[in-house]
Specification:
The protein is of the alpha+beta class. It folds into two domains: about 70 residues; about 90 residues, Beta-grasp domain (Ubiquitin-like (UB roll), Roll), CATH 3.10.20. A five-stranded mixed sheet has the order 2-1-5-3-4, covered by helices on one side. Strand 1 and strand 2 form a beta hairpin.
Length: about 170
């Protein structure tokens, strides 16, 4: 009789442990799901904050009757405001997380950030010597710019083009 009681007790203990393990597994899945959501939010946070700062800067400029130049990235269907004269088309795209490739980190040495200005060519700075040299070396046609060397003063519409390598 004692053996039966021990057997039933062991069986109840195992059953309880099984349900406890299943409960813990579910809690672990829920926790993992929550962690993944937090990681996603943390990744998006800098862009959300930048968006809010951009909105505030646009309002400030409008209150001071200053236009806000916009770069429209046609292939991406994205518009990005430029608030500083030092902003390049490359730096704006990089800040927005558009995933540009380049080996020179915006120094104008590689030629991988070539763009075609579709509209607003009058709203960009003239080509500097570095840019002229690289564009000539890579035999790009007229109208092509390196976005890392291109600052804007007004609205522009651009397309990234397939880059040539040195």
């Amino acid at each position: 009789m004692i053996e039966i009681i021990f057997g039933i007790s062991a069986l109840l203990s195992l059953s309880f442990s099984f349900f406890k393990v299943k409960s813990l597994e579910k809690n672990l899945k829920d926790l993992d799901s929550h962690i993944q959501e937090l990681k996603k939010r943390a990744t998006e946070m800098p862009f959300q904050l930048k968006g809010k700062i951009n909105s505030l800067m646009i309002l400030e400029r409008k209150n001071n009757s200053q236009p806000v130049p916009i770069v429209y990235y046609e292939k991406l269907d994205k518009s990005v405001p430029s608030f500083f004269q030092s902003d390049t088309i490359y730096s704006l795209a990089e800040d927005e997380g558009f995933g540009l490739t380049g080996t020179c980190e915006g120094n104008g040495d590689c030629g991988l950030c070539a763009i075609e200005i579709l509209e607003g060519a009058e709203n960009v700075n003239p080509k500097n010597n570095i840019e002229k040299e690289i564009l000539e070396k890579l035999d790009y046609k007229d109208g092509i710019r390196l976005c890392c060397q291109t600052n804007i003063t007004g609205n522009v519409k651009i397309n990234f083009i397939e880059a040539k390598t040195q």
